[in-house]
Amino acid sequence: MFKRITLFILTNLAITLTIGIVWGILQATGVIRNVSALGSYGPLLVYSALFGFGGAIFSLLASKWIAKWTTGAQVIESPRNATEAWLVETVRRHASRAEIGMPQVAVYDSPDMNAFATGATKNSALVAVSTGLLNSMDRAEVDAVLGHEVTHIANGDMVTLTLLQGVLNTFVIFLSRVVGGLIDSAMRGRDDRDRGGGIGYFFTVMILQMVFGLLASLIVAAFSRWREYRADRGGAELAGTQGMINALRRLGHAEESGLPKAMAAFGISGGGVVGLLRSHPPIEDRIRALQERRA
Prior knowledge:
single chain; alpha+beta; 4 strands; 7% strand; elongated
């Protein structure tokens, strides 16, 4: 828990500092003044984009380091046993068929059955599996799980999710302030309109940001569920449909994901959020989709 809190604080400090420096450079070089030619909303849009994309891009670039640190995943530099050698060779085979660079392969100590893939590019990624998954599944099932994760990398899911999150973050920040300003202006007297936003504006923006943020989360969750179906199909193509179905069935009897919240959406087994905010489709729906495709 302490490690996750420390990581959260350090990550947000780094993001804030980086964006502050970029914003200062844009002001010093006159870029912000030039953007003002777009109208009063020009600088706000630039500000929104910096904060909207800044956090998402930083998280993507640091994703492998964050994943290793939060899960304690140990990269297999030189296989120490037959299982590690098989893991590396299986990932290598899948990566070759998917035409991507060889990812790093790691194992992390956890009783939960899970695996994840992350990384900033297709040719610089990480695939990690839990000891719980290795101890609970046979090799055909693990093979399918690895194929699923390699497919995520080959599809560029991490980058696409980052771009989507960045765009949505930008519009959440921008629209909440624009609409908040309009509401605040309409509620105040004419003599007060030139004094800038007050406490009412602040609370209006906060409420709108939560509302727009929830709508954005629904879009991100829908994309995340769609990419899981696509990765299941990829795992079936790389390792066999029955192996993928068997792996999903075993995951269906497992407990909820034990991955840190920031990593839960990247695991093959999702977290506990239900309904339209689920990052993963129900296991039975994923199995049904594979069965219908095979038929």
